[in-house]
Design goal:
Structural class of chain A: alpha+beta
Number of strands of chain B: 13
Distance between the termini of chain A: 17 Å
Radius of gyration of chain B: 27 Å
Distance between the termini of chain B: 62 Å
Helix content of chain A: 40-55%
Largest sheet of chain A: 2 strands, antiparallel
Structural class of chain B: alpha+beta
Strand order of the largest sheet of chain A: 1-2
Largest interface: A-B, 18 and 19 residues
Oligomer: heterodimer
Chain lengths: 55, 515
């Protein structure tokens, strides 16, 4: 179960990146990256999906 | 954070926790992460005008999973009620931390076992949560003067004896014969951390010599016909205590890496003809001057060496008993024998075959006929603290009372509780009494005198063993003194003794006052 939760959590957030959902706030900070939201609008944003994957 | 979480997960994986703990831990971890990262989202989901629902759900997940994990952990703490009816009593908690082992699926073993479930290869108590818990409880005992919680000399003696057994394990070998090997630095640190607190509590529990002398004779309270022979220790009775001139008897039990180094081992034998017949038989053994081993080069290799068939054989009906009694450390720092019997192993020879090469080889086979071939009844009684403190049958219970058998004597030193892959082997034992008897039969399966390992351990020694000891009668008092003298020479006693001096407030070296 433990490994399953970890694996599924990682997989879901990876899909969020491609889908554009759960996207991070717009940011001009050093660690911001260009990501698109669900409407296809690409901006520099906080990489929150990647942070959640890493967590 | 990722690294910390991963490291914690890897570490916890090696620790036996209750079922579901790892899943709950991951859920709690995941919920905590979402709780802190949610404010970074660009378009939060808002309900009721201002509530960030994702954050609320994450907080609830972390709280519920974390709370459930805490409940599971609390419920999985062993509840021991040996020294007091309250499992929270310090003595119960200390005993549980040293003796109770828990499998990955939450089953507890060892609470009332005569020896702790510790092996040469155990990581338990040397590292991880068990190590921290043991030190915490020992320090609590020292700081709060836990020795004053109970004044019953019997309970004090038993707890001291148990802690001393753990100390001896600590000072023993930690290099198992099988993988995995332990990391020497971890072992060294674990031993160093535990040594002094254990010794201090051992000293604090010391009874006066007078109190030790008045401890009960639990064997006498247990013995009854058709179970344990009531006349086993009867002076001039049919049983003869056997000694050897060069030290204690039952060498293999004493030399083993398993527990039992703070005990007196007594070997007693009884021939059906009574005391005189038994003494005459020991004379005959001493007088035997022939070779112990025969060699027949014409036989297949596994049959070439076998015991001499002309050894004086004892008759059918002969009984041999191995009795283990507790040693204690008294308030003057001396090792003191007691009348507390820890274990009795009894073998009765129902049939004795003539020795041949094939017979010797067959005695070592393990199959469904092995007990019939051995021609012996194997019985074993072990000390139960619950029964002893509850004044039930002197505290010695038969094998049938076991819920499970664990081999700590003459084992390969592997701690299956520490090995996740070993859990399956813990779950496949149907009959504990059968498993225990198999352990007896393994070394004592040969016919008659050929299984009397105090004379010649044919099964264990091999043809290189050519000098049999000159066995003779020894009084119980002399046997105890031999055991004490042997213990004084051991490395573990040499390390414990100086640590006792401070807590016992001994001004001179206690060893100098030992007779």
């Amino acid at each position: 179960m433990a490994i399953g939760v970890l694996a599924v959590g990682f997989w879901i957030r990876l899909n969020c990146v491609f889908n554009g959902c759960c996207v991070g706030r717009e940011s001009r900070g050093r660690f911001s990256v260009r990501l698109h939201d669900i409407y296809g609008v690409t901006k520099r944003r906080l990489p929150v999906q990647f942070l959640e994957m890493m967590w | 954070m990722t690294f910390l979480g991963f490291a914690a997960f890897v570490w916890l994986w090696s620790v036996a926790l209750a079922r579901g703990s790892y899943g709950l831990a991951v859920l709690a971890w995941y919920g905590t992460g979402r709780l802190f990262l949610e404010p970074l989202h660009g378009e939060p989901s808002i309900v009721f005008g201002r509530v960030r629902i994702d954050r609320v759900v994450a907080a609830l997940l972390a709280l519920c999973a974390g709370g459930a994990l805490a409940l599971v952990a609390a419920a999985s703490l062993p509840a021991v009620r040996l020294y007091d009816n309250n499992p929270g009593h310090l003595w119960n908690r200390l005993h549980a931390s040293l003796f109770v082992r828990v499998t990955a699926d939450g089953r507890e073993y060892g609470a009332d076992r005569v020896d702790p479930l510790l092996w040469v290869g155990s990581r338990y108590l040397l590292q991880g949560p068990s190590h921290v818990q043991a030190i915490t409880l020992l320090n609590e005992f020292i700081e709060t003067h836990g020795e004053q919680l109970l004044r019953d000399p019997l309970k004090r003696g038993i707890l001291q004896r148990d802690l001393w057994t753990v100390f001896d394990w600590l000072e023993g070998s930690h290099a198992p014969y099988q993988q995995p090997q332990l990391i020497p630095e971890v072992v060294r640190k674990g031993v160093e951390d535990l040594r002094q607190p254990l010794a201090t509590v051992i000293a604090r529990l010391a009874l006066t010599p007078e109190e030790i002398r008045t401890l009960p004779d639990n064997y006498a309270a247990t013995a009854r016909p058709n179970a344990l022979p009531p006349d086993l220790f009867q002076p001039d009775g049919p049983w003869v205590s056997v000694g050897r001139p060069d030290g204690p008897i039952a060498r293999h039990h004493l030399r083993d890496d398993g527990p039992g180094k703070n005990s007196v081992f007594l070997v007693l034998i009884r021939l059906p003809g009574g005391r005189d017949a038994t003494l005459k038989y020991l004379d005959a053994l001493r007088s035997f001057s022939g070779p112990l081993w025969m060699h027949d080069a014409n036989q297949p290799r596994y049959l070439q060496d076998y015991p001499n068939p002309n050894l004086p054989q004892f008759p059918v009906g002969t009984q041999v008993a191995l009795v283990r009694r507790a040693l204690l450390i008294d308030s003057t720092g001396r090792i003191a024998p007691t009348r507390l019997t820890e274990q009795v192993q009894l073998r009765t020879h129902r049939a004795i075959s003539a020795m041949t090469a094939q017979e010797f080889a067959d005695a070592q086979r393990i199959d469904e006929n092995m007990f019939a071939r051995a021609g012996q009844d194997f019985e074993e009684f072990s000390l139960s603290r619950a029964a002893l403190f509850g004044e039930r049958a002197g505290g010695l219970l038969p094998l049938a009372a076991l819920d499970r058998f664990f081999l700590t004597f003459s084992s390969h030193g592997v701690d299956f509780f520490d090995m996740r892959s070993g859990q399956s082997s813990l779950a496949t034992q149907d009959d504990p009494a059968h498993a225990a008897k198999l352990g007896c039969k393994d070394c004592h399966g040969a016919p008659g005198v050929y299984s009397f390992n105090s004379y010649v351990p044919f099964r264990l020694a091999g043809p290189g063993f050519t000098q049999a000891p000159r066995l003779s009668e020894i009084s119980l008092v002399d046997a105890e003194q031999v055991a004490v003298a042997w213990k004084q020479q051991r490395v573990d006693w040499g390390r414990l003794q100086p640590l006792l001096r401070g807590p016992l407030k001994l001004r001179d070296h206690p060893g100098q006052r030992q007779p």
